[in-house]
Every structure is written in structure tokens, then in C-alpha cells.
Amino acid sequence: MGSALPIGDPAPADGLLPADLPVDAAAPFSVYLHVPFCRVRCGYCDFNTYTATELRGARQDQYADTLLREIGLARAVLDAAHGRRAASTVFFGGGTPTLLPPGDLARMLAGVRDAFGIAEGAEVTVEANPDTVTDAVVDELAAAGVTRLSVGMQSSVPHVLAALDRTHDPANVRTAVRAARRAGLDVSVDLIYGAPGESLEDWRSSVTTAVALEPDHISAYALIIEEGTKLARQIRRGEVPAPDDDLQADMYELADAALAEAGFDWYEVSNWARGERHRSRHNLAYWRGHDWWGFGPGAHSHIVGLRWWNVKHPAAYAQRLAAGTSPAAGRERPDAVARTLESVLLRTRIREGMPLVELDAAHRDAVAGLIADGLVSGADAVRGRIVLTVKGRLLADAVVRALTD
């Protein structure tokens, strides 16, 4: 049911921001709406999600109303800080947002529009399980203002889906993509590589199938084994093998080459798009350190360096909001060292890279060695930016250590 929340300072019951926080009402602002419900818990997942038997007092049919209370609180908090502004991106994530009726998602989006406004041309994304997408669902979402559907494909190979505990019908991925296209939405598909028993040819088949769907955007994430998950326990007991780092590296290189040949440009370590206008602007907001408010149980928020996170369980979340208090469980204001580490960690992951001038002299000197090792692009470094090569993307953590230790 999700990894543990961070340890931070107590969050005030009224949710108000510190008086000295330099909130800028002209800065970009994004909204994340967490829908924590799933029909089945996937064995690899440690997101803050719940099946019907785990809700213990929370109700899916009341969730939209509960979340709208947090939106009202957020409006008051940002008004008090003179920081309310229109959302440039909105993202429904989970969990499986499309387990809720599309009318509930539409009401939540309307709540964002009423509280903050939604900027002209904003990107509004809904994540979807392929089995929950129909023409009627997509039409209602599009009418509400959704512009983009992100389809959880993960793999096209049945035994790989089974290893991940994914229960959707692979044929429904194409159905979902077609429905989104008919409604005029942009389409992204998500893939995962490195599942137990997945071969390089299995992965090639999934990438080929994803490209054939002709989406605007493809995400491909290496399977990471998270403590506390079913898959971690299976590996610990020797029932299935752990991911092979060398095989995952081969899979990444295969995907990068195949996607480039198909006309997709990488713009973040795990993300490729057909041109700049199809990049996920919402995820770029995270990587660039913009402001965002995360709504829902366990959701995290960030305003000008201040971070906070909500209580995890939907029942506790609903109880706090019903009592008129903030659902925030804690918050922190990282110091300069932590902010620098985070900036390097996030900004080196994206294609635009990080300006060299933002590093101190000692760490700028380390860049020459990274170029010699083939991890950082020499041509981009000459132009004043740190941009990872393909090899560097595979060893991104090593690059971050070199630039921060």
C-alpha cells in the first residue's frame, strides 16, 4: 500500500504556508490528482493504492467529493500566500483513475478549474488501464477538458504481463488508443522492461507493438524491485529471478534505437515523444522544479522549495478533510545542499540538461572526466550544458554522484 512517508516537520492543521515563503504567482503551477484505487494489486507496485478489500471505511463513490474539499483548502492557502494561479498542467494518476466514473473525474477537473483556473492550452492527462477505456468514457473525459490519455500497456507478451500480475487484455490497448484518437486526444503508452522471464526478444516484440499503435509518446521504465512488494518476496524466496542489470541495459539500448528509428526523440531518461509538443509537460514540471499541488491520500506537493505530503490511507484522508483540517502528514524545507543534489538529480535526466554554470568550480572540473568516460555529451558541454549520452542515461546515478560528492 505504498512506501513509507518521509520523516519531516509537523504540518499545520490549517495547511498555511510559512509567512516567509517567497511564493510567485507568475511561476508555472501544476496539479496532480491521485486516485488510489485498483482492481488488483500488481506484484511489483509500491504506489499508494488500494483494492476494495483494503479501503477499511473509505468509499470510492465519495472520493471525488472528498478530494474537492482539499481543492477548496488549497485555494484558501494559496490565496493567503498571494500565490493562486491557473494550472498549466493537470494529471490524474494512481492507481487507476478510470476505475472512477468519468463524471467523477470531470467534477474533480471542474473543481480545479473553479478554484485556480486552467491555463489556455493546458495539458490535462488521465492514466488508464486498457480494460476500463471505452468510446463513451473517453468522449466524456474529452468533453470535460482532458487532452491526453496515458495507457498502461506495460508489455504485449502474455507471460510477461502475468509475471507483473497485470490482468488487462493486451488487445484492449489498441482499443483504448483508437478510442482516444477518435476523441481527439493525444496518446501515451507506458512500458516496463526487465520482468522475470522476459527475454530480449519479448521486449523487442513489446516495443514493436507499441510503435505500431502510433502513439504520440512512449514511456519505458526499468522494473525496480521495491521492498515490501509481492515480487520482492518472491525473489527473496528464490521463486523468480531478480532483474538482470546487463539485460536491462540491453533492453534500454534496444528501445532507444527502435524509438529513434520510428521518429521518437528522447527527452528524459525513460521518455520519448514525437516532437517537442508531445512531451509530457506535467512530468517536465517535476524535473524542472516547478510548483505543484498533489491532491489525494499520500500525494506530495512542492511550492518554492517547501515540500509536504498527505496522510496515506483514504479513510484517514477523508476524516481530516471532513473535520476541516489539512490532510498533510508532514512537511520539510530542504537546505541548500539538498536542493542542489535534487536539482542535479532531476535536471541531468532531461534532454535540455543542466547549465554548467550552476555547478561550483570543483564539480565543473569533474565534467571533463565524465565526457572522457562517454557519459556526458562533449558537444553539449561546449555549449554550456550537461547532457547525458545513451551510456550516461544507463549510469545516471554515477553521473549525479560525480557532480555532487
TrEMBL record:
Q: Where is the Radical SAM core domain?
A: 23-265
Write the protein's name. Heme chaperone HemW
Compartment(s) of residence? Cytoplasm
Q: Which BP terms from GO are recorded?
A: porphyrin-containing compound biosynthetic process
Gene3D superfamilies named among the record's database cross-references = Aldolase class I
Say which species the protein is native to. Microbacterium protaetiae
- Extract the PROSITE patterns matched here: RADICAL_SAM
User: What keywords are annotated for this sequence in UniProt?
Assistant: 4Fe-4S, Chaperone, Cytoplasm, Heme, Iron, Iron-sulfur, Metal-binding, S-adenosyl-L-methionine
